[in-house]
Amino acid sequence: MKRRTFLRVSTFALAAGALAARAQEVHDIAPLVDAITHGASAEEGGIDIGLPAIAENGNSVPLTLEVPSPMTEADHVREIHVIAERNPRPAVATFHLGPWSGRARVATRMRLAGTQKVTVVAVLSGERFRIARKEVAVESAACLDEGSLR
Amino acid sequence: MMLGRVQVPPSVERGAVFEVRVIVQHPMETGFRRDYDGKVIPLNIVDRLACTYAGREVFRVELGSGIAANPYFVFPVVATRSGELAIEWSDDRGQAGRVSATVNVA
Known about the structure:
The structure holds 2 protein chains of 2 kinds. Chain A is α+β, with helices and mostly antiparallel strands.
């Protein structure tokens, strides 16, 4: 093997290895969704997901969720589940609400381990379900900064 | 005892929806980080936070490691009567915290 070829190949191998080590795998979140809906189908949409299109820092990404609902005893949102398919643990949070909430709107700050689709599943009274997704581009991912004690 | 802070409006009308803001001081260790000696920093997150008001639980969240350090939540509650609104939480090490605020219903 020529020295030049060797250098080229080894540089590629190193770069690929480094990329593989940094990239978080995308999980199949279907089992998580099924566990929430018990296999029932969920209506697409009907959830406003407030997430930036581009997040500079994956360690803290502002998230707001709103499910339009009258929030009455007969018709209300019971649970909102947040799933991040590319996080090492995709189940991010489950919010429990009820008629006493008045409206279904919550806000928090989440971690994102890389560019990915965030899935939100809402459980409504009467065993009804809604599902929505939002893509977020993450410039600096969370969870990968091993060795730092920041 | 862990530090936390809760904020409610100074006064609310009966039947109106008001927002509760709560922040808890906690590192939310994912269990994936290592310290400078290469040792894994064990998983330790606040896994549960609940709010009680007017004699009932009005909000609860189960957290995973995907919630950012120093967990912050905003959630709505219907004002029914004046009284204490309390937030309680606990982490994987069994440490718990509690903060409260007074709701004034006009």
